[in-house]
Amino acid sequence: MEAMFYGTQVFLTLFTFYYFVVSLFGFYRKHQDCSLPPASRFAVVVAAHNEERVIGELIRNLHELNYPKELYDIYVVADNCTDSTAKLAAEQGAQVIERFNKVERGKPYALEYAFNKLYETGIPYDAFVIFDADNLVDKEFLNIMNNHLLRGEKIIQGYLDTKNAADTWVTKSIYISYILTNRFLQLSKYNLGLTCALGGTGMCLSVDMLKKYGWGMTSLTEDLEFQTKALLNNIKVTWAHDARVYDEKPLTLMQSWRQRKRWMQGHADCALRFLKPLFRKAFREMDLAAFDCAVYLFQPLRFVFIGLITIILWVQSIFPDSPF
User: Which residue of 7, 71, 78, 185 shows the fewest CB atoms closer than 10 Å?
Assistant: First the structure.
């Protein structure tokens, strides 16, 4: 038991050291030419379920992006809405795709439905850009994504910022955590040539890649599932540090707890499904990106180990003669 205990401690220490080393690469940024002329055509897709409170503000914001208006269209997928989301979106100039399906519910299914509808239009879009209904978007977002696409990148994640950072101590804490994650995880991985994490919003997906591999996401964390499947097909998620999207964060600890509980459930599901093929790819092909993605997926199990060690240490402090 003692050997297992110390072995686990060593493993967790190595795990932490690995991320410390990775984070060091977030202290610098590669110079990139962002002066390429607008050439990519975008379908901006907003997945919305009963979002009448915020949908109008987002659409007005999207109409003001600094990108040629003829090169992007705004679509709102009104998914099983029972309020005025669809009506308000149409009044603000968005094209509305209404969807009613009481069995296949949620954002992954809504996006699949929207993508298929957009294929049917025959419009030659180069990429789909995904936002949530409560977002606001930096005016240069599409310009920056255009530059990344023209460099051959297929899946690009934008910088996730906080829309309501000053509201409560919870939103302030989330704001700080996102600053650290964006700089010392996302930017670090991009600098190292690893795959970055998709954040569910502010995502740019090339249409040719989507048509080749499909969407087909059904988990609670469709973004994590998609980035993992893409990597298994040798497509990395890249990072656009200046393409900012402002996301509305939970106001209370309980709201944040429920959100992160759902994320962790989806994360654990992806870990159970993809850890083995990722490690196989990592060691068979000597693929560092696959290894890094596997380490990232291991996070829920790491927290379990940390919890177990904490309990063991607590028992030892109270019962020094215990077998632990």
Answer: 7
